[in-house]
Amino acid sequence: MTRFFWLIRREIWEHKAIWVAPAVVLGCILLLLLTGRVHLGPYDGTAGGLPTHFTHEERIALLMLAYAGLAVVVFLVMGIIAFFYSIDSLYADRRDRSVLFWKSLPLSDAETVLSKFATAIVVIPLVALVAAVISQFVVAAGASMQFGSTGLPTDLVWNPQAIFGGIGIAMLWCVTAMLWYAPFVGYLMLASAWAPRGPFLWAVLPPVGAWILEKVVMRSDYIGDFITERLFALYFLLRNRGPSGASDLSDDEVAGEVSKLAQIDIPGMLADFYTSPELWFGVVAAGLLLAAAMWVRRYRDETA
Question: What pLDDT is recorded for position 46?
């Protein structure tokens, strides 16, 4: 276990973007706060910035969703970091020939692959979670000062239900990302282990080519739908539980549609997600892809 822990620490040391990227995001949020460009949903911090047509419960729910939205932004950025980390994780050792050194150590291919997988699917989401929670408190502090300067009550932004509700949603999103994107990370690591060069092309071109071929030959979109559903997990969660479409609403009914946003059934969404066969088939697929990545790394000619 100690050896596995040090392998993960090695990955964090060598890939500074894992902790630099969230620091940059927090810096951008702080800069936007100082320039007054960050608003918490319907709360703009001006004299008329407190919506009166919502009930107190709806205000709290919308504020909680605004905090959760900050977490989504952080997770999107860290998702990009995880993508490029995964796609370069096993190829980088072969590119600089350091794989020959690591194979001379008493380390198995399974330990090496699993440590890189754990970094991508556990460490990076946890870093994103910490950054998301910090960003929520930073924005709450900024909004509190903004509200105080305009004579508005500052206790609303620090409402425990909104703050801890936003943190709770961020934690659930962290677990969701770990499970849902496990096969995606496993596929990228397999491409990284296999590619003689250009692992990005080896990872992206086969599914995109299959998508285009199916579209042209079969006139169907099964592969495309599968890829988009896997990439946009948040849409998968909201597609059956979100508010109704607003395309047929007049301007006077927009406020009513926004109120429906406060009534999103988050427990129902999570129940749908954790009982979906897509999730658990994906977890099994991730295990198979990791086993394939270990096999390729073990038997690949590293001098080629």
Answer: 46
Q: Which amino acid is at 50?
A: L
Sign of CA dihedral 128, 129, 135, 138: negative
The whole-angstrom separation of Cα 196 and Cα 194 is 6
What confidence tens digit (pLDDT) does each residue in 63-79 have?
887 888 888 889 989 99
Reference 187, options 90, 271, 106; nearest CA is: 90
- Asked if residue 214 belongs to a domain, the reply is yes
**Which positions of the chain have pLDDT values less than 50?**
45-48, 239-254, 303-304
Q: What angle, 0 to 180 degrees and rounded to 10, lies between the N-to-C axes of helices 56-88 and 160-180? A: 30
Q: Is residue 11 part of a domain?
A: yes
Q: Is residue 304 part of a domain?
A: no
Show the tokens assigned to 12: 């964090």
Domain of 194, in residue numbers: 2-299
